[in-house]
Amino acid sequence: xxxxxxxxxxxxxxxxxxxxxxxxxxAAGAETATSTTRxxxxxxxxxxxxxxxxxxxxxxxDVMNAAGYDAAKKEVADMPMGTYTFLGCTYRDxxxxxxxxxGYGLNILAGNVTLDEELSNNAHIATAVSINGRRALLEVDxxxxxxxxxxxxxxxxxxxxxxxxxxxxxxxxxxxEWCTGxxxxxxxxxxxxxx
Length: 195
Description:
Oligomer: single chain
Radius of gyration: 16 Å
Number of helices: 6
Strand content: 25-35%
Low-confidence stretches: 6-36
Distance between the termini: 24 Å
Mean pLDDT: 81
Number of strands: 7
Strand order of the largest sheet: 1-2-3-7-6-5-4
Order of helices and strands: HHHHEEEHEEEEH
Largest sheet: 7 strands, antiparallel
Helix content: 10-25%
């Protein structure tokens, strides 16, 4: 995992309750009806492009609900890093399959680092893929049990979707199950990612 991935993931875990869904809804409701691009919630001093996709505001709740994630319980996290920015949103899927899994945790981060920077940091665990014709990476690190990540390229940088599989038994799930169904979710979200 790259340095921003570690920092962003740690920040998401630490400040994931920074803003409630109702506050996110209020902020989104303040937009004018003719607006097509939201002003970024936060920016940095890096000179990198502003992050113009916000995972908590720009992915329709019905898309996440249809995928098994309770969008009413999504949690917003602001992560200005000084030299780059990540806008994050955390979702939970509590659909338990007894003896198999307790559900999933999903963290979606939009950041203004490039896909090439991400590949440079994680080439040892990354596989080049395409999501709806968009350049992307699939990252599976055998040292990070039950975790699967897709990284999708954007004009401003990238969007990372990291899912954690919560087993309903001691130990880790088989590695071939870590990513099951995640590509379909990423494919359904990709059309909503700005540029």
